[in-house]
Write a structure and sequence with these properties.
- The chain contains 6 helices and no strands.
- With 123 residues, it is mainly α.
- It has one domain.
- The longest helix is centred in the C-terminal third of the chain and has 24 residues.
- The protein is globular.
- The model has no long low-confidence stretch (mean pLDDT 87).
């Protein structure tokens, strides 16, 4: 999946390649006709790349306050973003934005669980 690859490249700090993958994601999303959702999703992806690339995580407060190795925190954020991405009370743009954050948390959670020294932490 392109999105998983994008997040892996970001975590490996391969931003040029990540930006190329983002362009492929944009191209595929243009064909599905969900303009507002796509715009929100792509805005979040771009923000994730820029924040990690700049190293200034304070520019995006969420990243400044999260430990990507804390399985329990990642689960909490994943569930929160999932609820928002499925909310009927939010606009399509917002649901797209939270969907991207949800996808990012899903990949970060899987990575943290794989890297956790104590596998019991996964539950």
């Amino acid at each position: 999946m392109l999105i998983t690859r994008l997040f892996q490249l970001i975590s490996e700090r391969k931003f040029t390649e990540a930006e190329r993958v983002l362009e492929r994601v944009k191209s595929k999303m243009e064909r599905n006709g969900q303009k507002d959702f796509n715009q929100g999703y792509l805005t979040a992806l771009n923000g994730i790349i820029l924040t990690n690339k700049s190293g200034n995580e304070a520019s995006y407060e969420f990243f400044a306050n999260i430990n990507l190795n804390d399985v329990n925190a990642l689960k909490k954020h994943y569930k929160d973003f999932l609820e928002k991405s499925e909310s009927r009370f939010l606009a399509d743009y917002d649901r797209g934005y939270f969907s991207a954050l949800c996808d990012y948390m899903r990949v970060a959670l899987r990575t943290a669980q794989r890297n956790a020294p104590n596998k019991d932490v996964q539950s």
